[in-house]
Amino acid sequence: MASSTRAAAIVLVAFFCGTAHHNPAAAVKVDTTGVTVADGLSFNFYENTCPHVELIVEFLVGEFIREDAGLAPALIRVFFHDCFPQGCDASLLLNGTASEQKEIPNQTLRPAALKLVEDIREVIHKVCGGPVVSCADILALATRDALVDAGGPSYAVPLGRRDGLAPALPNITNTLPAPFFTVPALIKSFGDRGLNVTDLVALSGAHSFGISHCPSFKDRFDPVNDNNPAIDPKFAETLKAKCVGDNPVGTVTQKMDVRTPDVFDNKYYFDLVAKQGLFKSDQGLVVHPATNRTAIRFALNQGAFFDQFAKSMVKMSQMDVLTGTQGEIRNNCAVPNKPAAGIETASREDKDLAAEM
Ligand code: HEM
Ligand SMILES: *[C@@H]1O[C@H](CO)[C@@H](O)[C@H](O)[C@H]1NC(C)=O
Ligand SMILES: *[C@@H]1O[C@H](CO)[C@@H](O)[C@H](O)[C@H]1NC(C)=O
Ligand SMILES: *[C@@H]1O[C@H](CO)[C@@H](O)[C@H](O)[C@H]1NC(C)=O
Ligand SMILES: *[C@@H]1O[C@H](CO)[C@@H](O)[C@H](O)[C@H]1NC(C)=O
Ligand SMILES: CC(=O)N[C@H]1CO[C@H](CO)[C@@H](O)[C@@H]1O
């Protein structure tokens, strides 16, 4: 944690530990009627055990993002990579040799976003007296708050997820879609995980902010086959020229959304209309007849995009969740409470923060 964020965290701990409980209903900002909630999850899950959890996450995420705006896209991508393979169980946060973080799709996840979740966990355990809130729930809340901080829509997050005991196997992690996928391949990939075509078009709009690296889009300026949808030739030249300097590989970064690179908005769909989608998986959405109408609707109407993005995020945030007595509440987001093969075991306590109080 940066020193100013750490100072803020200490004030927060002192504040919540030293005052009577407020009415937690005050923290609920969004209408939850009509939202489908998975069995075992609820909006008031921590009402008695950690009533201020949402306020604490919102405050700390704001502090972190003020120091590094890139944490917002980084966090949302971490959430997608956690939920999609085996469900929102924070399994991606486990480190060590068998970690999901070693798999190819994860290699460009930003470690600072993983650390943010663990830093928030540390504060929450201090305030609420030990492991009552799961890392999976902290990640779901932090993702929502980061999205709002970047200009995106808010939504209520059902809570009560439990943390997975082990990382996903490599063959499961590798079910994540690749940037060279065609629209039919994307539809199949999302469909296999219970996400429909509208979810695909809306969730792809997360590429409205954040960065990418040359290996992810080199097929766009060196088209090897004709199912690569048309790209603006000037844009292709710019990308190609930039990536000439990508030595060592992975050092050049490219904005995902050339129009408003740091803001979460619907300009990503403008990029697609202008043939300036970065990935084949992006550009295809505005071309393929199964997705083009929705993509164009989102380009024309940011409200429609935000509304659907929020719905699709709530759906994704509940994929294959562990609830009740399944899994565990981790003492440290990076390590399971009991040793698992190839994964670090918990050793560190909350002593850093405690030492400062
Ligand atoms: C539709 C299929 C998808 C594909 C093929 C895909 C692929 C990728 C790739 C290749 C990158 C860049 C990696 C790099 O070069 O560093 C990326 C970045 C990103 N993706 Fe996706 N993605 C997809 C869907 C999603 C979804 C559903 C979300 C979230 C809801 C998401 C959020 C992001 C964000 C925010 C970034 C930027 C991360 C950063 O700045 O650190 N993506 N994606
Ligand atoms: C895993 O996380 C733990 C706890 O945060 C840390 O002590 C350890 O160094 C990490 N290991 C690796 C390989 O990143
Ligand atoms: C992944 O591998 C495991 C163990 O090898 C196997 O049981 C499982 O069916 C595989 N799943 C998929 C989706 O390939
Ligand atoms: C979508 O694609 C189909 C087939 O190419 C085309 O007929 C239709 O006009 C397109 N719709 C939009 C809104 O671009
Ligand atoms: C797809 O799922 C979303 C919820 O994320 C829902 O709003 C939408 O109606 C569904 N669309 C179709 C075509 O089933
Ligand atoms: C965030 C994270 O842990 N990323 C890791 C992905 O895998 C590569 C290769 O093993 C590691 O170097 C990264 O640290």
Summarize the structure in words.
It is a single chain. This protein folds into two domains: 4-174 and 318-356, Peroxidase, domain 1; 183-315, Peroxidase, domain 2. Helices cover 44% and strands 2% of the residues. It has 15 helices and two strands. Strands 1-2 form a two-stranded antiparallel ribbon. The longest helix is centred in the middle third of the chain and has 18 residues, at 111-128. The protein is globular and about 60 Å long. Residues 20-28 and 347-357 have low confidence and may be disordered. The chain binds protoporphyrin IX containing FE and 2-acetamido-2-deoxy-beta-D-glucopyranose (5 copies). One 2-acetamido-2-deoxy-beta-D-glucopyranose is lined by residues 101-102, 106-107, 109, 111, 114. One 2-acetamido-2-deoxy-beta-D-glucopyranose binds at residues 196, 198-199, 311-312, 315.
Layout of secondary structure:
Layout: H1 3-18, H2 53-67, H3 71-86, H4 111-128, H5 135-149, H6 170-173, H7 183-191, H8 197-204, E1 211-213, H9 218-221, H10 233-244, E2 253-255, H11 267-273, H12 280-283, H13 292-300, H14 302-316, H15 351-356
Antiparallel strand pairs: 1-2
Helix pairs in contact: 1-2, 1-4, 2-4, 2-5, 3-5, 4-5, 8-14, 11-13, 13-14
The structure holds protoporphyrin IX containing FE and 2-acetamido-2-deoxy-beta-D-glucopyranose (5 copies).
One 2-acetamido-2-deoxy-beta-D-glucopyranose binds at residues 169, 171-172.
